[in-house]
Amino acid sequence: MTAGGAPDVLGRSTAGGGSLLARVAPLRRRLRTEAGSAGLLLLATVVALVWANSPLGDSYAAFWHTELAVRVGGAELSLDLQHWVNDGLMAFFFFVVGLEIKRELVMGELTDRHRAAVPALAALTGLVVPALVYVGFNLGSDAVGAWGVVISTDTAFLLGILALVGPACPVQLRLFLLTLAIADDVGALGVIAVFYTDDLRLVPLGLAVLGLALMVGLRRLDVWRGPAYLVLGTGVWVATYLSGVHPTLAGVVIALVTPAYPARREEVADAARRARSYQQSPNPEFARAARLSIDRSVSASERLQQLWQPWTSFVIVPVFALANAGVALTAETLRAAATSPVTLGVIAGLVLGKVAGILLGTVLAVRLRLGSLAPGLTGAQLAGGAALSGIGFTISLFIVDLALDGDPVAADQARVGVLVASLLAGLLGWSLFRLADRRRPPDSGGGPVWLDPPVDPARDHVRGRADAPLTLVEYGDFECPFCGRATGVVDELRERFGTRLRYVFRHVPLVDVHPHARLAAEAAEAAAAQGRFWEMHDRLFAHQDELTPVALLEHAAAVGLDVPRFARDLGASRFARRVEEDVESAEASGVTGTPTFFVGGRRHRGPYDADTLAAALLAGDGGPGAIAAPAHRPVDPRVLPALGPRRDVDGTAPGADAGAVPEPLPPDLPETPDRLGAFPRLTEAQVSLLDGYGSRSRRQPGETLFGEGDAGYDLPVVLSGAVAVVEALGRAGQRVVSVHGERRFLGELDLWSDRPVLLTAVVLRPAEVLTVPRGRVKAAFAADRDLADVVLRAFLARRSMLLEMAADLRVVGRASSPDTDRLRRFALDRGLVAAVVDVDGEDDAAGLLAELGVAEEDLPVVVWRSERVLRNPGDAELAALDGAPPGTGDRPARSRELQEDT
């Protein structure tokens, strides 16, 4: 990667500081922390072993068994130092574990149940199989109850060692293992709660539950500062300890009731306002208000995790290892451990049982289709990660103290087993990763080199014959100038190889440096849904400097698409996931810039001129499988209007009675429902942001915000009251297009057009309006990309609706229906403009049918230009409405206007 989106040495666009893997950057920063904490944990273990086996070895046990008491009045809590560490300090460790679990459940990997299914089942079998292995070694002995020692994975050690010995680019593997480790932690904590709790006392347990309820109550009362929770948390810990439940579980439960949520835009905006106030007038009051507001804008879970994770990683867990890993490794102890079923069971369970259990669960989950593995994960990588999961160090030593507290000899043997197993698991994982490295081709550059997944005839866009022996795959970006130049190379190769070559295109929009690339990729997929992918592909590359939403509609019209359907698909983000699948495929295949080519399924390195790629193609085998080039319809020479509703030449709405007098607009018109995302309501934070770029004003009924014929308009946001958008206001055929209420914005794609405005925005009820000057809208969008996306997609959806309203007839039905096809042909034969709305592609088909007052059995229905709805009409009925034979009447004048609009 090169910074700032600059081309690399091969002349490709790269994603700069926000690469294709930018969304896992927080994980990578965390892994650096885990590697450091793992090193410190290892150092503490070595110190404990050296101390326990030095001439001062007796002082090790004497020190950690020193009593420390806390007295409050007549009450006293007395524990030795080791138990203060294990029961007290480790509560903070389990608190951080609980916070991580809560975060992943609410907004992390575990929110996607399908994606989490494979590592979750692998974690379950990774708990059960090692326990069974241990029980097999110790069945019938008193130590059989220590099976919990072998079930858990030390997440810090796992990710830390993985960062040191793992493969060069194991992003998918790290995500898989992180999810697995979190699910593993959940299981281990449940085991501790259920199987290692003795002498349960209900009164203290009830007090602990009461303390938790009070914490939840404070949260409901919006008390979010720390002192109150600290007092209650301490009380919950003491009550849990007195109840007989292990007190560290109090840390987990407190974490799970701690609120976790993504940053709220309203609170972020409030923090920004307070920070600006402090900047303008620095004083202690404003400083405190800004600081508290910033804290409030981030969930307590994330703030506490950031606060406590360094303490647990770099202080608490190393102190725990120092207090628990000091086993006297005398000759007698080692001889006993070598033949002890406890030691052997621990080693076998952690080293062999973990690998077998995790791989078994992974295979079962995939075979049962409960979920799927991330692209790019290999069997050797999974095996290496499963082996490292056998490092159960922290929680294993913790459970030794719980399960074998009354048998110090067996406890020492179990600790020896944990130490040996952790060492062996690390070596086994390292060996498996080195084996995977040797299998990697020498020119892979440390990353994947094979196309993943391979070309799929059911989904990929392919040019070429089904039996073509040569395959060239390109990952490209429609806004990338290097991809634009590469199209000439591809054309030359196709001309050179003819029917012997098939060419595949996949999307990698580099959104950090190419702001229009993602929407352009979705536009190509929307064209593909209408059988015109390659026409749109070629046109987008030929007009790389014209990829705005308005330009995309022009391109759609030019290649003969159903423009209303195309705009509706873009506005609804219908193909965003399809593009994201290609991005995930690029990550799995080692793509780092555009264009990137794969020849015969293998990533091409070096220049991508025609001669170099031709030599690579001839040297390869073309790869397995083939797909035929899709058959495309001839391009319809007529094009739909790409800029707003069509008018008759006299200025009236289509089909209107020129002598009719329009009714006054009723002031109580209801708001237009938000169908297909065309009329979203802005959040308070988004309104607050726009406030900084515009101005507010009070408007009275009858006032216009913009009017038909205006040279342009600014972006209005309705803060209160109601505003209607009307076609042909005050003239024959007057029609209300939409009604907007609180926090809805007006306008559509013609906001940035130089053509006269076609609609009028008139105030229905007294309103407060925020107006953002047209010249400042783009600056506001640059400050909030999510806001820009909401507005632009709403504008696209509105354009779709306007195009449908502008058509002579709208056919609402199923695109595959013979009657729908008959109605489309009728319109074509008579020179009418038709918009086909496919109910199978509608997100809210039921709402659409209800709006038209029809049922499923009525389909297809036709909405005539006068808004009359006809249920599956015959050609004669439509001809009577049209009143003109095919190809005659006023259609030529309208056709001229269509051409002018486009």
Would you give an account of this structure?
- The protein has 902 residues and is of the alpha+beta class.
- Helices cover 53% and strands 11% of the residues.
- Strands 10, 11, 12, 13, 14 and 15 form a six-stranded antiparallel beta sheet that branches. The protein has a five-stranded mixed beta sheet with strand order 4-6-5-8-9.
- Strand 16, helix 28 and strand 17 form a beta-alpha-beta unit.
- Helix 1 (25-52) crosses helix 2 and helix 14 packs across helix 17.
- The protein is globular and about 105 Å long.
- The model is unreliable at 17-32, 621-656 and 886-902 (pLDDT under 50).
Task: List the topology elements.
Layout lengths: L12 E2 L10 H28 L4 H8 L2 E6 L2 E6 H27 L5 H26 L16 H11 L5 H25 L6 H19 L5 H18 L4 H9 L8 H16 L3 H13 L3 H25 L6 H9 L1 H27 L11 H10 L4 H11 L4 H32 L21 E3 L6 E7 L4 H17 L3 E7 L9 H12 L4 H10 L6 H10 L4 H9 L4 H13 L4 E2 L1 E4 L2 E2 L6 H10 L64 H8 L3 E5 L4 E3 L8 E13 L7 E6 L3 E2 L14 E13 L1 H10 L1 H22 L2 E5 L4 H12 L4 E5 L6 H8 L8 E4 L4 E3 L3 H8 L8 H11 L1
Parallel strand pairs: 5-6, 16-17
Antiparallel strand pairs: 1-7, 2-3, 4-6, 5-8, 8-9, 10-15, 11-15, 12-13, 12-14, 12-15, 16-18, 18-19
Helix pairs in contact: 1-2, 1-5, 1-12, 3-6, 3-9, 3-12, 4-6, 4-14, 5-6, 7-8, 8-9, 10-11, 10-25, 12-16, 13-17, 14-15, 14-17, 15-17, 16-17, 19-20, 22-27, 26-27
Considering the chains and any ligands shown, give keywords for the structure:
31 helices, 19 strands, six-stranded antiparallel β-sheet, 53% helix, alpha+beta
